[in-house]
Amino acid sequence: MAVQEAPDAKIRTHVTLVNTPVTVVNEKGQLVYDLDAQDFRLTDNGVRQRITNVDLGNNPLSLVIVIETSCESSRCCQRSAKPAVVFTETVIGPQDEAAVVGFNDSVDTLLDFTTSRDKVLDTMNQLQAGTAHARLFDAMATGIEMLSRLQPQPTADCPERRASW
Fold first, then answer.
1. Average pLDDT, the chain
2. Dist CA 68 CA 134 (whole Å)
Protein backbone atom coordinates (compact mmCIF):
# COMPACT_ATOMS: atom_id res chain seq x y z
CA MET A 1 0.00 0.00 0.00
CA ALA A 2 1.45 3.36 -1.00
CA VAL A 3 1.47 6.17 1.52
CA GLN A 4 0.37 9.48 0.14
CA GLU A 5 2.16 12.52 1.37
CA ALA A 6 0.03 15.43 2.43
CA PRO A 7 0.53 18.64 0.50
CA ASP A 8 2.58 21.25 2.34
CA ALA A 9 0.31 22.08 5.20
CA LYS A 10 0.56 25.35 7.03
CA ILE A 11 -0.63 26.05 10.49
CA ARG A 12 -1.47 29.63 11.23
CA THR A 13 -2.24 30.99 14.61
CA HIS A 14 -2.53 34.35 16.27
CA VAL A 15 -0.27 34.84 19.26
CA THR A 16 -0.82 37.74 21.61
CA LEU A 17 2.30 37.31 23.73
CA VAL A 18 5.68 35.85 22.95
CA ASN A 19 8.28 35.53 25.70
CA THR A 20 11.77 36.26 24.47
CA PRO A 21 14.40 35.55 27.11
CA VAL A 22 17.56 37.62 26.84
CA THR A 23 20.62 38.23 28.96
CA VAL A 24 22.37 41.59 28.77
CA VAL A 25 25.80 42.15 30.25
CA ASN A 26 28.07 45.16 30.20
CA GLU A 27 31.72 45.19 29.11
CA LYS A 28 32.72 43.88 32.56
CA GLY A 29 30.41 40.88 32.23
CA GLN A 30 27.98 42.21 34.85
CA LEU A 31 24.24 41.86 34.36
CA VAL A 32 22.47 45.04 33.22
CA TYR A 33 19.14 45.69 34.96
CA ASP A 34 18.17 49.25 34.03
CA LEU A 35 16.69 48.59 30.58
CA ASP A 36 13.31 49.54 29.13
CA ALA A 37 11.35 48.40 26.09
CA GLN A 38 12.98 51.23 24.06
CA ASP A 39 16.36 49.57 24.59
CA PHE A 40 15.31 46.51 22.57
CA ARG A 41 14.35 45.93 18.96
CA LEU A 42 12.48 42.74 18.12
CA THR A 43 11.69 41.69 14.58
CA ASP A 44 9.81 38.79 13.04
CA ASN A 45 10.86 38.05 9.46
CA GLY A 46 12.25 41.57 9.28
CA VAL A 47 9.07 43.22 10.58
CA ARG A 48 9.53 45.18 13.77
CA GLN A 49 7.30 43.97 16.59
CA ARG A 50 5.82 46.05 19.37
CA ILE A 51 7.23 45.23 22.81
CA THR A 52 4.51 45.57 25.41
CA ASN A 53 6.23 44.29 28.52
CA VAL A 54 9.81 44.01 29.72
CA ASP A 55 10.31 41.83 32.77
CA LEU A 56 13.97 41.92 33.62
CA GLY A 57 13.57 39.22 36.23
CA ASN A 58 15.21 41.46 38.75
CA ASN A 59 12.55 41.02 41.39
CA PRO A 60 14.36 39.96 44.53
CA LEU A 61 15.13 36.26 44.67
CA SER A 62 15.02 34.01 47.71
CA LEU A 63 16.84 30.74 47.21
CA VAL A 64 18.04 27.78 49.18
CA ILE A 65 21.28 26.12 48.11
CA VAL A 66 21.04 22.44 49.00
CA ILE A 67 24.43 20.72 48.97
CA GLU A 68 25.54 17.20 49.77
CA THR A 69 28.16 16.95 52.50
CA SER A 70 28.33 13.16 52.73
CA CYS A 71 31.95 13.16 51.64
CA GLU A 72 34.81 11.26 53.18
CA SER A 73 37.09 14.28 53.22
CA SER A 74 36.73 18.04 53.37
CA ARG A 75 38.55 18.25 50.00
CA CYS A 76 35.67 16.31 48.44
CA CYS A 77 33.20 18.78 49.97
CA GLN A 78 35.14 21.72 48.58
CA ARG A 79 35.18 20.18 45.12
CA SER A 80 31.42 19.64 45.20
CA ALA A 81 30.86 23.18 46.51
CA LYS A 82 32.65 24.92 43.62
CA PRO A 83 29.61 24.96 41.29
CA ALA A 84 27.49 26.38 44.13
CA VAL A 85 30.09 29.11 44.71
CA VAL A 86 30.03 30.05 41.01
CA PHE A 87 26.22 30.03 41.13
CA THR A 88 26.26 32.28 44.19
CA GLU A 89 28.66 34.75 42.62
CA THR A 90 26.68 35.03 39.39
CA VAL A 91 23.07 34.78 40.54
CA ILE A 92 22.71 36.47 43.91
CA GLY A 93 22.13 40.17 43.41
CA PRO A 94 22.11 43.02 45.93
CA GLN A 95 18.43 42.52 46.89
CA ASP A 96 18.49 38.71 46.81
CA GLU A 97 18.78 36.39 49.78
CA ALA A 98 20.07 32.86 50.10
CA ALA A 99 20.24 30.08 52.66
CA VAL A 100 22.46 27.00 52.66
CA VAL A 101 21.30 23.52 53.65
CA GLY A 102 23.79 20.65 53.88
CA PHE A 103 22.81 17.02 53.94
CA ASN A 104 24.45 13.68 54.70
CA ASP A 105 22.91 11.33 57.29
CA SER A 106 21.33 14.45 58.74
CA VAL A 107 19.95 17.67 57.28
CA ASP A 108 21.51 20.84 58.65
CA THR A 109 20.70 24.47 58.04
CA LEU A 110 24.25 25.74 57.60
CA LEU A 111 23.16 29.33 56.97
CA ASP A 112 19.74 30.91 57.35
CA PHE A 113 18.55 33.48 54.82
CA THR A 114 20.95 36.34 54.35
CA THR A 115 21.54 39.03 51.74
CA SER A 116 25.28 38.80 52.35
CA ARG A 117 27.00 37.00 49.47
CA ASP A 118 30.15 36.92 51.60
CA LYS A 119 28.37 34.89 54.30
CA VAL A 120 27.04 32.47 51.67
CA LEU A 121 30.49 32.09 50.13
CA ASP A 122 32.13 31.64 53.56
CA THR A 123 29.61 28.91 54.39
CA MET A 124 30.26 27.16 51.09
CA ASN A 125 34.02 27.39 51.58
CA GLN A 126 33.84 25.95 55.11
CA LEU A 127 31.79 22.82 54.40
CA GLN A 128 32.65 19.96 56.73
CA ALA A 129 32.66 16.35 55.59
CA GLY A 130 29.82 14.30 56.98
CA THR A 131 28.93 10.64 56.91
CA ALA A 132 28.33 8.55 53.83
CA HIS A 133 24.54 8.61 53.87
CA ALA A 134 22.60 11.13 51.82
CA ARG A 135 19.15 12.42 52.73
CA LEU A 136 18.49 14.39 49.56
CA PHE A 137 14.70 14.31 49.73
CA ASP A 138 14.69 15.41 53.36
CA ALA A 139 17.05 18.25 52.47
CA MET A 140 14.82 19.32 49.57
CA ALA A 141 11.81 19.25 51.91
CA THR A 142 13.72 21.44 54.36
CA GLY A 143 14.52 23.94 51.60
CA ILE A 144 10.90 24.04 50.48
CA GLU A 145 9.74 24.54 54.06
CA MET A 146 12.20 27.40 54.51
CA LEU A 147 10.94 29.09 51.36
CA SER A 148 7.32 28.51 52.35
CA ARG A 149 7.87 30.37 55.64
CA LEU A 150 8.94 33.52 53.82
CA GLN A 151 6.32 36.18 53.82
CA PRO A 152 7.76 38.84 51.53
CA GLN A 153 5.98 42.13 51.82
CA PRO A 154 5.26 43.68 48.43
CA THR A 155 6.17 47.31 47.92
CA ALA A 156 5.75 49.69 45.00
CA ASP A 157 9.34 48.98 43.94
CA CYS A 158 9.11 45.25 44.55
CA PRO A 159 5.62 43.82 43.93
CA GLU A 160 6.80 40.22 44.16
CA ARG A 161 9.71 38.02 45.22
CA ARG A 162 10.92 34.99 43.31
CA ALA A 163 11.83 31.84 45.21
CA SER A 164 14.06 28.96 44.16
CA TRP A 165 15.84 25.90 45.57
1. 79
2. 7
